[in-house]
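Hi F.,

I've been meaning to write this up properly since the lab meeting, where we talked about keeping a consistent format for the predictions we share between groups. The idea is simple: the sequence comes first, exactly as it goes in, then the structure tokens exactly as they come out, then a line or two of notes. No screenshots and no reformatting. I'm using this chain as the first example so we have something concrete to point to.
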Amino acid sequence: MKVTHIPFQKTGFFSKMMHNYLEKNENLKPFYNNFPDIQGFYNQIEEKSISFCLQTRITLLNTLKVQYQNLAISENTADNLAYLQYKNTFTITTGHQLNLFTGPLYFLYKIISTINLCEELSEKFPDKNFVPIYWMATEDHDFDEINYFNFKGKKVSWNRKDGGAVGRFSTVGLEEVFKVFSAHLGNSKNAIFLKNLFSEAYLQNDNLAAATRFIANELFGKDGLVIVDGNDKELKKLLIPFIKDDLINETSFTEVSKTITDLENDYKIQVNPRNINLFYLEKNSRERIIFENNLYKINNTNFQFSREEILNEVENHPEKFSPNVLLRPLYQEVILPNLCYIGGGGEIAYWMQLKGFFNKVEIPFPILLLRNSVQVMSSKQSKKMEKLFISNDEIFLNQYELISQKVLDNSEIEIQFDEKKIFLQKQFEELKKVAKKTDVSFLNAVNAQEKKHLNGLANLEKRLLKAEKKRQQDLVQKITELQNELLPNQSLEERQRNFSEYYLEYGESFIEVLKKSLKPLQLEFTILEL
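Output, unedited:
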């Protein structure tokens, strides 16, 4: 095993906002609270200690006991559940959709980042307890985003009728998916583990939430991971004042809209708020709540409520109100003694739209931490990179750019087109000095000729590069094949591959190596050679 790191910025896969956040750019400081370093956590602990009450802890603990009642619990998870009742206990949270068989690889990276950060904080603050939380996105209804995973370049899909919160979906029909997946695995020890994990999760649990909880617990229960399902009446009772506020005052819409105005000139906006950022949840539906003609209407249904009726509905049935992507973070921070949210670049970007809203409703805004990202490569692939003189930074270049650079580096022709362009521009600068003393039409003619000659030179450069690529076809093919192996579909492999590919080859040691290698507060991209 060999672990190296490069800046996130060098990969080309992270946004300007993430670059600026990691660099502590002054422009972003109004949009987050404490930075993810030890001093930031010290400040966050102080802030959360004051705001989080004992009764919420008791409700949280009692609810989680019910959620865990049909699951085998490790000693570490049992300890962490018990710790939640004490005021010196805090959580570190990540969240993820209920992707079939965990979906893309970064599911693992999110959770391991969360576990490792808790362990690091326990060393820095020995008088405190830190509990890693995986928040299951059981109320999502984007089934098309979660109904498949990729295995060795093939898509393993679950086709069924869509409708409602995905956590409630029956697992009926996954027997066929299991048969298809099993056929690709073989009969090795690691293959048998994967088969058992899939079958026990999906064929012995009634719904997708229970199946996903089982998998996460099997993989990370020994590390003390605590899994939370927010689609719960007792937990949503704690959100009642904020649900009412959103229905009556539209606070989230107002405050997030202000933040977007401040952000949009410099950064891409991830999520646009609605006037009401809540859904109404029924057994087989999750529909937006719309305020129209002094009535609260449930989109695509005949349901409607007066103000008094919907407030009574919130009091009596809070479980029927489902936060959207902008209110879910608030819900999490209301019910958890949370210090930090760990997420991908897109997630951190939409969290940054929420700081003003959190301030308005007087809930501490958590630390935001960009999760660990990993490029796994074999020693064989690493040796190929060395032979092709490709560095860790360069492998992430756009493929056209990478091939062009390496072809020119390997070329026997030493014509420097940049020098030729500079020389040509200098010649035309002399002509422009003369032209300025004459008629404007002559100056225009000089500018046109300069553009024509520079374009001609650029075309010659492209033709030379094309000819060199043809001459060095073997090199081009080797670079293309290697980069396609490492970056499937010209994307980070963590967004494409499923963990089962590596587990099949390396077994439990793959997760153990990840756990040893990922350093959440290092704030760098990890390259892991196995």
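Notes:
The chain has a mean pLDDT of 93.
The CA atoms of residues 7 and 524 lie 5 Å apart.

If this format works for you, I'll send the rest the same way.

G.
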